[in-house]
Structure formats: structure tokens, C-alpha cells
Batch of 2 targets.
Target 1
Amino acid sequence: MSILDAPLARLDGTPGTLRDLTGGQPALLVNVASKCGLTPQYTALEALHDELSSQGLAVVGLPCNQFGGQEPGTADEIAEFCSATYGVTFPLSEKIEVNGPGRHAVYEGLVDTQDEGGESGDVRWNFEKFVIDADGTPVARFSPQVTPDDERVRAALRSVLA
């Protein structure tokens, strides 16, 4: 089964799959949190969404509260924060776990992907980024400190949009 077929509700609770959130397009998947020092990356994520959605890229935020309890809010609180603070219009999923025994099926299919330093396995922190192709195959992984507008991320996105 492709990670695209994993059950994954939208933040508002609408049932679906990752495929529903990506529209079957290549995507940048990011575990997000509202109270993290990296939260300002929402600005660059929204800019990528604005710039590349017309070229067939989906940006998807996957809220997670596993790192320092930095996504403690309800779905409504997360939606309000993202909209009011960062103008987020890209889709957000329900809050999920990315590590441990409750790891969501989407991340089961992502964590074996190596980043540029050869690191794979558990997600290290909020805002770790995965680029997948239209079939749901992971093609790149970037550490939380690599910003969404970094040229390395943009190059990986170009590779799946080509």
C-alpha cells in the first residue's frame, strides 16, 4: 500500500487519505507545530504553496505534539493560529504521531528515507521535511533546520515536478 492510501483526516475531521490532501500530486510533507522556535517556517511553506501549487505541488502540514508539547491545541485552535498568524491556506491534517508505537502509517513509509547527512529513522523535531513524488515515493528528506525555501529543498521539489 502506498502512503497516499493511508487513512488521514483533514484538520477539520473530514475523513480521507494522504492522497486526498495532496490531490495525487507531488508533495512537501512537514510535521508542524504552533509553539516551536521553527514555527516561522510556516511563512516559507505558504510561499511555496502560493508559488508552486499551480505547477502541481502540494504542501501538506501534519500537526504533531510529540516534540516538547509544542502543538497542544485543538484542531480549531491550530486552524485559527495558522490562518490568523501565517495566512496558511495549504491543507493541514489531523494531529498525528510521527514516532513511537503510535507512529502514523504515513510516517511508517517515510522514516527510512535518508537526509543529506545519511540520517534516517525517527523524526528528530518539528518541521522535518519530506518530498514525495506523485506515487507517494519519498525522494528527499530535510532536517528541521533546513528552511522550506532553501535551494536544496527547491531542487528536490523541481525534480518531482519535472
Note: The longest strand covers residues 27-32.
Target 2
Amino acid sequence: MGKPTGFMDYKRQTVPYADAQRRLNDYNEFLVPLGDGERRDQGARCMDCGVPFCHSSFGCPVDNLIPEWNDLVYRGKDQDAFKRLMKTNNFPEFTGRVCPAPCETACVLEINEPAVTIKNNELFIIEKAFTEGYAVANPPVVRTGKRVAVVGSGPAGLAAADQLNQAGHRVVVYERADRPGGLLMYGIPNMKLDKKVVLRRIGLMEEEGVEFRTGIEVGVDITAEQLETEFDAVLLACGSTVPRDLQVPGRELDGIHFAMDFLSGNTKTLMSTGNSDKAPVHAGGKHVIVIGGGDTGCDCIGTSLRHNCEGLANFELLPKPSTERTDEFPWPMYPKLLKVDYGHEEAIERFGKDPREYNILTKEFIGDGRVEAVKTVRVEWRKDENGRYQMHEVPGSGEIFKADLVLLAMGFVGAEKPVLDSFGVATSPTGAVAAEYGRFATSRKGVFSAGDMRRGQSLVVWAINEGRGAARELDRYLMGRTYLP
């Protein structure tokens, strides 16, 4: 696919970020798109590898036909590329911005050369479709007479709603927040995913017949029985939203917040007022400690910097990752590598150093009513006799970090109780809904589940995969057969 010699003729060129100093002044998206010609060159690098691992089990969870639309990008057939992309991915404008791109680490070219810019090519295709006007509403011609309730409007719920609507069912999506989108709306900061992009897709789905009912919390404002009376089937896609806590001495002090409370409050304020000055948790002038790495930790860093924080540190319990693949992560596995993401780059610009502290364990929060400092100890990881890594504190390595604001970004441990209790569905030991992957049926007849609520905390692209799969099985349940992919 692409140009036969493209991977030798052209170097990998990713979409760059805007200048770090400039982008710290606003919440605008920071990607600087390449021109059409440069994008065609990047499509040309797809190397006709024979076995495209990019959409194997190691690559894209939604089985994107990547070599096919890379070839079409190279040949300038953008509308055909769009049609091919939409066969497998309902929302490439989301994955093209926030997906960690396991497709690229599984790219065959990545064995000994920089991988094809698959994620950037995907974003080019969908944004070109909206710009040129061929990404338009396509409502179903025939309706089945069946009605489906989707609880939760994150990527899993939206993907399922989109698929079920295209199958001809009447779909109503329930969202407890004031705007639909779930994680996409309030969990991911504007600079990574502009909310106009989310609302653009919501508007398109509404034109196609999907109904959104916001400000309604299922299990609180409406019961499971009420939904089952109105609808023929229900899909639970509420995410994994119970945050992991850190129960150490001093946890009760003011100034310690969960990351999502910080991020969502900032985005809501930004959307309501046009600036974040009145955000309920504000980092301006404060020494901020972010506990937990990953994307959420990085988002806390980027948002704190835009609040003009006074100081910043990011605690990571695990060791500093390698910059290259190790024997633990051979190709085509997705490797845990050190990356300098946008927030880290901005912190280096502002404070002159990377904010991350590795192999560090929080022992205590110190303060008089309000947090003033964090007591820590360094740790090291050693394998035991069974080959498992065990954590050991390093004697004499205690430290005190000044802190006026602590943000806990340590992931999530399951779905929230109201909706689980209302439906009474069985759950797994991890707190997720018990529903077999591939079937997605819960212990309650006519009730299905998908996304992080079923799978546990995961990626946006996996949520889309699950939403599509659940829609297929739900359609089969309603109609006795299904033609959904």
C-alpha cells in the first residue's frame, strides 16, 4: 500500500505541537496540522508489509483498515479514505486526537524504522471530510419500531447509540451531566480535545435521530424499572468513575482533590464563562503535587500550568521507563516507554525541568486543617523468588515536598453504585459489571453493558470497540439476527 519505496523516500513527520510558551496562554488545541502534500508523503510510507500488524490483535482495537486508507491518502482519494475509515471507527476525530496509537507500535516498519503516522493520517481524513462537507448526517431509511436506552454518553455509549440508530432502532441516550459526551466532554481538557469537536459529532447524531436526555442520573432520577417499561432493551455504559483513593495520614486535609474533580470543574467553568478563573479547584499561585502518572496526571500538569501555579511535581510510584523497547516489550507489543507529553514539555518550559519524580511513595499529608506538605520515601523494585517485582522502601530517603494543592490521579476502581444498585446486575471482584466480552449481556434480561463499566479503566478506542460489539449483540437480541459489523 502507499508508494512502494515511500518508507525509504520520506522520513516520519508527525503533527507538531504549537510552541510550548505560546500554548500555555490558552486552552486552544495545540496540534499544528501538516499541509496536504506533507500528509500524502506520510501516507506513502505505508510499506505493503504483507501482514499488517497495525490492525491485528496487537494493533488497532476497532480493526481499522489502515493500509487501505493510507494508500487512499497517498493517492489523494480523500473521500474514499473517509468511507473506508468510517466502516470501522465511528469517531476518528476523537481517536485521532487522544488515542495512544497501539497501531503505530505494531506497525511492521517500527521493527527497525520510525512507524507510519497512522494516528495523524486518521485525523487528517476525518477533518478533511468535515471541511469539504462530505461528513454529513445519514439517518436510517427504515425504522424497526424498537426502542433502546443507552445509559452514559461517553465513547462506548455514543458508539453503541450510533450503531443501533443506524440499524433502525430508536435510541435515547441518558447523561447525568448538563452536556453529553461523558469523558470526552469533561474528562479530557480542551487543549487535547476541543469541545466543539465533541458537540459537532453530537449534533450529527441528533440529525440522524439519536435523542439525548441530559441532567438525568439513572438510579437517582429514574429507576431501572421505569427504563425497562419505556424501552425494549437497555445498555449500561457509565464508565469506571470511582477514583482510586490514597488513604494515608492527613488524607482528610483540605486541598486534596481527585484529578477528575479538578479537570471537569475547570472545563465546565471554561465552557460556561470563557475562562477558568472561577474554577472550583484552582491551582493559581499554588505549589501543586500530582500523584499518579499517565494521561490524567499529564492533563493535571497542563491545566495547573494554565492556572499559573507556583510550583509543580508529579509523583510516580514505578521506575522511570526506558526510552527504547526492552525484552519485556518486544515488537509488536505496546511498550511502556518514557515519553515527554505536552504537559511535561510545558512544565520544562515554565520551570526548567521535568516535573516527574519516579520511585516515590507518599507516606503522609502534612498540614493544619489544610495541606501544606507531602512526606515521601523513595522505593526500589526487586524481583522475588517467583520473578515478581516487590517494592522496598529505601532507608534514609525520606523527603518533604511543599504542597498547597494535591491532585490524586491514580486511576479508577469501578462503576458507581446508584445505577448498579438500581439494576441489580452482577459485578466482578474488580467492581465492573459482569458481562462476557463478545456477548455483553448482564445478569438481567434485556440489559447489556460495555466500555469501562464492563471492562474496567481502559482506552477511548477500546470503549468504541465495546460499544460497537454491544450494539451488535443488542441488535441480535431485539431482532433475532444482526447485520451490524
Note: The mean pLDDT is 96.
